[in-house]
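Hey, quick one: can you model this chain's 3D structure?
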Amino acid sequence: MRRVLAISCVLALTALPAAGAPPTDPALEYDPSSQAWNGMASFVGLAEGMGFSVTPVSSLEWGDISADDILFLVFPLKRVEPQKLAAFVAAGGNVVIADDFGDGKEAMQSMGMLRVEVEQAKSSRFYEGRTFAPIANARGEHPLAKDVGDVVTNHPSLMTNIEGATTIVALDDGAIVVAGERGSGRFVAISDPSILINRMLQFPGNVQLTSNVLNWLDRGNRRARHIILLRGDVPMFGEPRPYIDDAHAGYVSRSIGDLNFWLSERRAWLLTPTAMKALAASLAAALLLLAMLALPVRRGPKIDGAWLRFIRPARRDEAHALVAAADKNQGSNLVLACILRDMVQRLLADLTGKSEPLYTVPETQLVAELSKAKGTAAGVALTRVYRRLRALPSRGQAAAPWSAGHLARREFDTLYKDVAELCRTLGADVPAPAPTVLQEA
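Sure thing. Here's the predicted structure for all 441 residues.
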């Protein structure tokens, strides 16, 4: 590419001697097969060198344009319907509309820009001082502007009041190239179609810009590789497809879209009664075959319904569960704390003659009765643990498999020490903990 651009710089020195003169044959203007200065053979060669195919058309059917196509509207002399162009892009189509003084003005306006035809475009630089050849420059960080630099124009019109699009190349008082997205499609608007002619593609910036346009519309996935070139007086018919492409869709979504279009083209909903019966029979046979393949060849084990029986989950406070957890250095401190609480509950019930005194007797009364029966030390020890023991859940709640209750190891050790002191004052010692204790749950 660098060598091509270098050669282009040399050829550019002779690029515009005749640019201001009228073409010798108007029929050759923007002709894709013409080698004349105002033909587009260089554009076709550039596109084909990049892996694209180019098809000039003498008429356009909107419904024939697919996701594999890029539509190039170059200096159209037939009115481009703004609604159809907007619908085409929104459905996922890719289009370049390059027009300065043709009938694409309304279509450009539907894309969010106003084309202004000026006698003399304002610019700080002109190619070799020629006022009909102002030099525009690339703007911003858009992919189309990458490595473009300067773009030489030839009698350009300008685009102003741009909304919903990004200016790519511009002069002092207006844009030359803008690009944007509508729906799932992309568009590029060029207010100077002569950028694409043979003479103008001898400038490096013009070549780079054209290459960037093709790559951007193809989205880099080598899907839209066919250019439909419409130039001049070409009639346009029909309506765009309601769905063309979605760049973010996967292979399956695109395949479904292609199938829907294929069916719509063949009017699948107009099947005759005989054809509908044949289709139904074919589908039934296919479903029967799938069912036969899905059924097991051999009978499996006898189904006795055992998997439906309810099996009660094991409680974590059962003796064997506590021993097993201790052997694995696992277990729940909350369950152990509830066991301590129940032991204290039984001792206090024996002394007071009341059922569950921790929950049925007020704290002050219970402390007074215990102090009277076992001394002040016992009352103080009960006061130290009373509220902590009352705050514990029931043993069943703590031991349930779904319980999310938690008691830190440090808190359990403190509680164990205080309960042991209370039991000592009551004359019932708590066994000392083993050297290897349960891990915090």
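One thing worth noting: The chain is about 40% helix and 15% strand.
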